[in-house]
Amino acid sequence: MTETARDRLIVGLDLPTIAKAEKIVTTLGNDVVFYKIGYQLVFAGGLEFARDLAASGKKVFLDMKLLDIDNTVAKGVENIVKMGMSMLTLHAYPKAMKAAVEAARGSELCLLGVTVLTSMDEQDVIDAGYEYDPHTLVLRRAEQARAAGMGGIVCSAEESSAVRKIIGPDMALVTPGIRPAGSDKGDQKRVMTPADALKAGSSHLVVARPIVAAADPLVAARGILDEMTGALSR
To answer: How far is CA 62 from CA 40, 129, 158, 184, in A?
Structure first.
């Protein structure tokens, strides 16, 4: 991939109001071009904000983790394509992924299969009723996402190297749970530094709290971008 660190950093706007999100976007200016919008902001008017961001030239990763019957997933994806989004998540269930891929065919929307949430460890996966440990489940879903024709995978950076071997060099590999050295892990259980995640095979890094909750978000973002640039130049 020839993308720069600026193309690969996705800032998660995990914020309670549009006003707070707008302030972050304004503060980060041209240094950041890619943003993630998830449930918290969506339910505060974030869908219109997402459209506005895309219209302004920013890239938007809509983190909705869709999962429903085939027709419902397909119809939702069709409308998300019309919104001008760059990335969209859905849970990596084979039927849902196949329906989404067909609905997005011919568009530039990159569909991402969510494997195992980075807030889950082995006991959490067992409690959810799966017979696999997180690593095995991630790899199985990566194989299914590739077979379905998805644009990429969402997984922990800890699994990036193994997943990259399965999906090949062209699919996107998006990793949340990114934490610069010394920062608080929060509720994430499987985390990695930006440089290590890129070395492991991740193509895009999602960073939220270390930037949006920083005393100076622009300084925090630039520090992460510098670390990413150093890793990409090696």
So the answer is: 12, 28, 23, 25
> What pLDDT sits at residue 59?
98
Overall average pLDDT of the 35-43 stretch: 97
Q: Residue 113: which of 128, 97, 98, 101 has the closest Cα?
A: 97
Which position among 23, 65, 189, 199 bears the catalytic label?
65
**Whole-number pLDDT of residue 124:** 85
DSSP 160-210: HHHHHHHH-SSSEEEE--B--TT---TT-SS-B-HHHHHHHT-SEEEE-HH
Using the structure block, give the residue that is written with the tokens 């790899």. 139
pTM of whole model > 0.70? yes
Q: What is the pLDDT of residue 2?
A: 56
Active-site residue, 36 included: no
The tokens describing 136, both together, are: 């095995």
Quick check: 137 and 86 in contact, CB under 8 A? no
Single-letter code of the amino acid located at 167:
I
Burial of 122 (0-12, 13-18, 19+ CB in 10 A): middle
Question: Which is it for the CA torsion 54, 218, 46, 175, positive or negative?
Answer: positive
Return all residues near 163 (Cβ < 8 A) that are at least 6 apart: 115, 138, 139, 142, 153, 155, 173, 201
Helix (H, G, I), strand (E, B) or coil at 148: helix
